[in-house]
Write a structure and sequence with these properties.
The structure holds 2 protein chains of 2 kinds. By secondary structure, chain A is mainly alpha-helical. Chain A has helices spanning about 1-15, 15-25, 30-50, 65-90, 95-105, 110-120, 130-155, 160-205. Chain A has one domain. Chain B has 2 domains: about 30-365, TolB, C-terminal domain (Neuraminidase, 6 Propeller); about 390-445, no CATH class. The radius of gyration of chain B is 33 Å and the shape is elongated. The chains are: A mainly alpha, B alpha+beta.
């Protein structure tokens, strides 16, 4: 566990090309560690909302809801993985579904290792120093995008341009999935209402 | 469904009974007092002003007012009401008895349409008569001092028709006149009635949608479109420093209230949580606040009158919304068409054109305390303001400005740790940062010994471990070398 949860993520963030290669061909990194990283990301977001310093914390304490934080990480994650798998299957990607899961989860490492310490450092910051806080957060986000890019490129054996196109397409497909999901849900709702009304009608008539 | 009706019936009944019970305990207001919190939500607040009485023309024994348009309180407490429909000016004593009625001006005959009034410190009366197109200045005894009917200047277009609607005068007796059909700003006249120039043009707001629309339309279409012209000022008042507080009826502008310095720039402080624009949350069908009058209450505090929803918004010198009162309705203490707001030093008066009466609002304990604390703070007595703010917090623990006020005073007396708490309560981040930095520095100074000791101890331990490891590895290296040699020898 130590190897796959501590050593490998650090290897990933500093040497993404070779590490993701290892992930694909040497079977490094595990799904268990991936789930843990996602959980840590969620915890990082929750901690940030709850404990970030007053000067950088613009969250209304009355609307903090950890369930919502969990959903806002997990749903996009699942959508991304499913959409990316769907797209790359059509576009000759070599990556497997589990590989996409692992790559995406391991790419979240910078978020975890930057957000959690910054949350606590931000409590000791004055107004002028908050710029540093925001800088670190943006670095973490950019780093995450970079790792994701490298990871997708490596596991699917794509060129750089094709990776960018795929990523953009993935985001579009995520939107389509959400749209279809909403459509299906509302249809189900309608069907349910229809059947329920028939049932009530029958109940009243007899 | 049935449960719902039962529950709502119970709730309604309980509300009904409790309100009737409460009414016996304290006077209720016909309107709901509220204020906005940091999250821009309207939250209930104690009323700052409650209706105490209404005065109509009949009460004064001079027959009802007819569409009164403006009123002003003189420095001696006399109230001058422009009874426009009856073409007269009614002067009322501070104890609400009749003083006199001005019905005509020597050599001028009857009034036309009196739109605006102003009284300066010498009790000189300034009358903006838009019907006659004249600005009439009367001495206290009623003698004519000056009449401006046709201002002359190079920057005034030929054939310009002077229609003054509102007037205000500064301590140097310069007259500031809002005239209809003038888009260049407020007209400024000197003591002798010479035109000095315009101050404070309202900026034209560019609408990107309109600009794009214009790009694709033909010349004929463009000529049919509305012109982009600056909005006119609706009213004005003047503070003791000679700065002009002005209102305009520019819908959706973030700056309907302005404070103009002598060169016409807007210098209103807007350090509150949100724009100085009246209601920040409103139904789209109702629309934003439309300010038709403004009154400077002294010590940087000013009240704006919103005719759209019949509310009076009072702000302090830094642009914090202190309190809101009033509404449009038919009860006593509510308005139909409010046109003017005044302040006699204690009470606020609102003139209602449609109801043709004057509403008198007296301050509650809460209102008095807030005003007192704001005045103390404005004049630099922050420490003296603290007990007053604490009383305000007793009455309304959601009053953010009170927390900030206390916090400021604590910072000045170097009690930074407590100040941090109060600024956090008041959601004031800039001041919080100042207090926090000082507190951090103090703590660092105090804890310097401990911090340094810890660092030194940790460094010693780390170095010790490194040395020990090196020694150990050397020893191991020696033994291996020894053994390697021995192996070779063997």
């Amino acid at each position: 566990m130590k190897q796959e949860l501590i050593d490998f993520p650090f290897q990933v963030i500093f040497k993404p090309f070779s590490s993701f290669w290892d992930l694909k061909y040497d079977n490094k990194g595990s799904l268990r560690a991936s789930y843990l990283l996602i959980a840590l990301t969620i915890i990082a977001f929750i901690l940030q909302k709850q404990y970030a310093g007053f000067l950088v914390n613009y969250t209304d304490p009355r609307v903090i809801n950890s369930l919502m934080d969990i959903v806002t990480v997990i749903i996009p994650f699942i959508l991304w993985v499913v959409a990316n798998w769907s797209i790359t299957t059509l576009m000759d990607g070599e990556g497997k579904f589990t590989e996409i899961v692992k790559v995406t989860a391991y790419s979240l490492t910078p978020i975890v290792i930057v957000y959690i310490p910054m949350t606590f450092i931000s409590r000791y910051m004055a107004q002028e120093e908050t710029a540093f806080y925001y800088l670190m957060l943006s670095i973490a986000s950019l780093w995450f995008v970079w790792l994701l890019f490298v990871g997708i490129m490596t596991i699917h054996q794509y060129s750089a341009t094709k990776t960018i196109v795929t990523m953009v397409l993935t985001i579009i497909v995520m939107g389509i999935i959400v749209f279809l999901g909403a459509l299906v849900l509302s249809m189900l709702q309608q069907i349910y209402d229809f059947i329920y009304n028939i049932y009530r009608e029958l109940l009243f008539r007899t | 469904m049935r449960i719902k009706t039962i529950v709502s019936a119970v709730v309604l009944a309980s509300v009904l009974f409790t309100t009737t019970l409460l009414e016996a305990v304290h006077a209720s207001t016909p309107y709901e007092a509220y204020n906005y919190n940091y999250w821009e939500e309207a939250v209930a607040s104690p009323a700052a002003f409650v209706p105490s009485k209404t005065v109509s023309g009949s009460d004064l024994g001079i027959g009802p007012f007819l569409e009164p348009n403006d009123m002003v309180v003189g420095t001696d407490g006399k109230l001058y009401v422009a009874d426009t429909g009856n073409k007269r000016i009614v002067v009322i004593n501070p104890d609400w008895t009749m003083n006199r009625v001005i019905e005509s001006v020597d050599g001028q005959g009857a009034f036309g349409t009196i739109s605006g009034l102003f009284v300066d410190e010498d009790h000189t009366l300034y009358i903006a008569d838009s019907g006659l197109g004249k600005l009439i200045v009367l001495h206290e005894d009623g003698a004519v001092k000056l009449i401006i009917d046709n201002p002359q200047s190079d920057i005034i277009a030929a054939g310009f028709k002077f229609t003054p609607t509102k007037v205000a005068v500064d301590s140097a007796k310069r007259m500031y006149v809002v005239a209809s059909g003038v888009f260049e700003g407020i007209m400024q006249f000197d003591t002798d009635g010479e035109f000095l120039g315009y101050i404070g043009t309202n900026e034209v707001k560019r609408d990107y949608y309109e600009i794009i629309w214009r790009l694709f339309s033909t010349k004929e279409q463009r000529s049919q479109m509305v012109l982009f012209i600056p909005t006119e000022f609706s009213n004005l008042d003047i503070d003791q420093k000679g700065f002009v507080y002005s209102t305009n009826i520019d819908l959706n502008s973030p700056t309907p209230i302005k404070r103009l310095n002598p060169s016409g720039e807007d210098v209103l402080k807007r350090y509150g949580y949100f724009h100085v624009k009246g209601d920040i949350r409103f139904r789209l069908s109702v629309g934003p606040s439309i300010f038709v009058d403004i009154k400077y209450l002294g010590d940087g505090i000013y009240s704006g009158l919103d005719s759209n929803q019949g509310k009076v918004f009072t702000y302090d010198a830094e642009g914090n919304l202190l309190f809101i009162y009033g509404m449009l309705a038919n009860q006593n203490g509510t308005f139909k068409t409010p046109v003017a707001v005044e302040y006699d030093g204690v009470n606020q008066l609102v003139l209602d054109r449609a109801k043709a009466n004057i509403h008198v609002f007296k301050p509650t304990m809460f209102g008095e305390l807030v005003l007192e604390a704001s005045r103390l703070h404005y004049n630099g007595y922050s420490a003296e303001a603290v007990p007053v703010w604490e009383q305000v917090l007793d009455l309304n623990s959601n009053y953010d400005i009170a927390y900030i006020g206390i916090g400021r005073s604590l910072v000045m007396s170097k009690r930074n740790e407590e100040a941090i708490f109060y600024f956090e309560q008041g959601m004031e981040r800039d001041q919080y940062s100042v207090a926090f930095k000082r507190y951090r520095r103090e703590e660092m100074k105090e804890q310097f010994g401990t911090i340094m000791t810890t660092i030194v101890i940790v460094a010693v331990i780390i170095i010790g471990i490194m040395i020990w490891r090196k020694i150990r590895s050397k020893r191991q290296g020696r033994t291996t070398r020894y053994s390697a040699g021995r192996d070779q020898a063997l």
